[in-house]
Amino acid sequence: MDTTTATTPMNLENSPAFTFTASTFQKLHPIEYFRKFVSQGVRPDGRLLNGFRPTTVHVGVITTANGSAMVRLGGTTVVCGIKAEVAEPKLDSPDQGYLVPNVDLSPMCSSAFRPGPPGEQAQVVSDAINRVLKESKVLDLKDLCIEEGKAVWTLWVDIVCVSYDGNIYDAALASVMAALANVRIRNPSYAGGIIKVAGGEAISDENSFRLKLNRTPLSSSFALFDTSLTLLADPNFAEESISQGQISITIDEHDELCAVSKIGAGSSSQALLRQCVDRARERSKELRAIMSAQ
Amino acid sequence: MASVADAVVPGQRLGHVQEFNVGAGTYALQDFIYASVVGLKRIMKQGGDNELPFMTVQRENSQSAIPEIEAIVTCKVVRVNPRFASVNIMVVDGKPCTDDFQGIIRVQDVRATEKDKVKIYNSFRPGDIVRAQVISLGDARSYYLSTAANELGVIFGTSVAGGSLVPISWQEMQCTKTRVIELRKCAKPL
Amino acid sequence: MDRKRVPGPELSVAPLVEYPIDHERWTPQQEKRHDPKRQPEDLRPIYLKTGLISQASGSAYIELENTKLACGVYGPRPVKKIGQGFSGMGVLNCDFKFATFACVKRRNNTRQDPQEKELSQILSQALAPAVRLELLPKSVIDVYITVLESDGWGSCLAAAITAASVALAHAGIEMLDLVAGCSASYMQIGPSISSTTTETSSSSGAGNPITPQIQIFMDADTEEEKYEQGAIVLAYMPSLNEVTHLLQNGKAEGPIINQSVEHCMEACNKVYAVMHHALLESMKESKDA
């Protein structure tokens, strides 16, 4: 970032004699610093306004989990691990299993988070992912039934953020979908109230099953910057902290919308929303290509 | 540039205390000088021929800045009361801090002369950006800062009307929008 | 009830794993480890990289085959806890955490785990002697470890020590030396006298030794730890030749402990080479950038 030799933009501040390095200026006047770049159509990290950061997806990275995936979105790294355990079904849905996604934003991944129970942002992201998985019927929970009324599978979907640099929702949702597609559970047998799985031999298609995913929703997020509500695709941490609001568009593989959310930033026009949806369509295709290349 | 051989990590032995003086990024233990940071080994010649050269290690990843006594810091005023102004220290010696440190400017440290006439409210307002000097590590919470020098004081401010302020004397600033004059302890531009 | 997380069933258990009768489990036999390619004194190959966590002052990621963990260092930064008096020395605060999916059995993260607490404390004891805290008055350095996958308790702790000291150096914090961590388990080898496992056909060996033989396995994995009689974890400053922390569990005789400490020190020197390399790599990268 220091390569941009921006000393104080003199016209912004009327004290011509104080000069700072770019990083000091960013710290003191983050919004002014940003406006300078945005007015030129670029962002401090060199991206165009609608550019997403380089993305990589790796699946099966955790051998102690039934399914796992690691997604890197620029400086944001998340690892999703899914563990399957046996539980009693709810009384009102005796043939349905559980799908429990939770995001952990630990103090390791950014100084913005404190140790202890999940903070506000972690709760919001966990809930958003839970809603997308439920409302879009990604998984038929009946597929997780072992013995009706007695035992079902619980999929504990835990998303750990290793490094936080903004746009956790896109990264977390992509990691959940990649990990769900990676899940393998050994075929269970039910006898006298005990669930057993066969151990010993290596896991294969004969002794295990995979999950059938009905849809694969993936999201694209945009930050709304300044009063002009300039769209910044895939905001990083610095951009998130000065943005007015955020729009997330979640789209499945048939180009159908699964979820749209807009947080903050007063009112925005329909045209703005359309612009987001159009860009999200392109992005979702790119991301799908990256995921299927795995 | 430097060769790979000059790259050192903490704990690497660099030389004997009889040959070198202990410089930045190094420490002496018993008879030897060791590196204490990751960086490049540099031998600094200094002073007369009789003096030993300094063994230093130039840091590769600089530690995030922490305030030290006599350091010049840039901070933002968060609260004022009649006895002191509370500030968040954001930049130390030109290096931005990753996490803001707390500091206070006590009423007796605002300026060097006529200390008894100083009123905090006529010197700083919340939101002002102030250049100050660290005078002590302070108490458990805050560093103590001083603006008692010409080049120290408010460098940026916003007026009541929301316009930016321009210094017109060492204790007055004018709003660019409404031309209203507000009182501040201004920093003399360097 | 925990309202801050998406709720799951109150109680869930891992399914019972049933092994076929003819299934052969690994048991500690002479000169043969769980991973047959490793010799008793061999460590697993170490992958160590700095700078993974973009927001942290310093960070490191370490992988010993299936033991994977990330470490982030923040600081020096102002002390956040209210009520702590003025301190002329910096404070080193460590937090050790397992991801819920890191172990064979799922960990429930709703409560602070006593094991995590203990490991946090060991970690800070092992690192503090190497950090020049006297240079950082009124400040705190936070070291956070997240274990993504654990394969062996001892190796996990050792890897955390190694990664944390590299992350501290990467953060530019002044240190006396790097701290390398290494673990070793001692176990009884050969045909076992007291049958600890479901042994079926291994008692055919001729000339049973009367005294049980103890073998030291360096950097044991989970499967090997199941059979261990004891283990040590050593934190060692290789260039100053000083031990910062030593943890010994279980039953062992003096000579065995001495021997394993020596083995660990030797292994720490190997680990040090990897750490050295990783830090020089990080220097090169920052120069290229």
UniProtKB/TrEMBL annotation, chain A:
Localization (cell): Cytoplasm; Nucleus, Nucleolus
Family matches, as SUPFAM superfamilies: Ribonuclease PH domain 2-like, Ribosomal protein S5 domain 2-like
Keyword tags: Cytoplasm, Exosome, Nucleus, RNA-binding, rRNA processing
Domain Exoribonuclease phosphorolytic: 52-185, 217-282
Biological processes, Gene Ontology terms: exonucleolytic trimming to generate mature 3'-end of 5.8S rRNA from tricistronic rRNA transcript (SSU-rRNA, 5.8S rRNA, LSU-rRNA); nuclear mRNA surveillance; nuclear polyadenylation-dependent rRNA catabolic process; rRNA catabolic process; TRAMP-dependent tRNA surveillance pathway; U1 snRNA 3'-end processing; U4 snRNA 3'-end processing; U5 snRNA 3'-end processing
Alphabetized Gene3D superfamilies for the sequence: GHMP Kinase, N-terminal domain
GO cellular component, one term: nuclear exosome (RNase complex)
UniProt-listed InterPro entries: ExoRNase_PH_dom1, ExoRNase_PH_dom2, ExoRNase_PH_dom2_sf, Exosome_comp_Rrp42_subfam, PNPase/RNase_PH_dom_sf, Ribosomal_Su5_D2-typ_SF, Rrp43
GO molecular function terms noted in the UniProt entry: mRNA 3'-UTR AU-rich region binding
Family, per entry: Belongs to the RNase PH family.
Stated name of the protein: Ribosomal RNA-processing protein 43
Origin species: Mortierella polycephala
High-level lineage: Eukaryota, Fungi, Fungi incertae sedis, Mucoromycota, Mortierellomycotina
Automatic annotation (TrEMBL), chain B:
Source taxon at top rank: Eukaryota
One Pfam assignment: EXOSC1
SUPFAM superfamilies in alphabetical order: Nucleic acid-binding proteins, Ribosomal L27 protein-like
Transmembrane segments: none
Keywords in alphabetical order: Cytoplasm, Exosome
Signal peptide annotation: none
Gene Ontology terms for molecular function: RNA binding
All copies of domain S1 motif, residue ranges: 68-148
Subcellular location: Nucleus, Nucleolus
InterPro entries: Csl4 (IPR039771), EXOSC1_C (IPR019495), Exosome_cplx_N_dom (IPR025721), NA-bd_OB-fold (IPR012340), S1_domain (IPR003029)
Coiled coil: none
Example of a GO cellular component annotation carried by this entry: nucleolus
Listed GO biological process terms: RNA processing
PANTHER family: 3'-5' EXORIBONUCLEASE CSL4-RELATED, EXOSOME COMPLEX COMPONENT CSL4
Protein name listed in UniProt: Exosome complex component CSL4
Native source species: Mortierella polycephala
TrEMBL record, chain C:
Keyword tRNA processing found: no
Any one GO biological process: poly(A)-dependent snoRNA 3'-end processing
Keyword vocabulary terms for this entry: Cytoplasm, Exosome, Nucleus, RNA-binding, rRNA processing
GO MF, one annotated term: RNA binding
Subcellular compartments: Cytoplasm; Nucleus
Domain Exoribonuclease phosphorolytic: 43-174
SUPFAM superfamilies associated with the record: Ribonuclease PH domain 2-like, Ribosomal protein S5 domain 2-like
Disordered: annotated segments: 22-41
Gene Ontology cellular component list: cytoplasmic exosome (RNase complex); nuclear exosome (RNase complex); nucleolus
Family statement: Belongs to the RNase PH family.
Name of this protein: Exoribonuclease phosphorolytic domain-containing protein
Species of the source: Mortierella polycephala
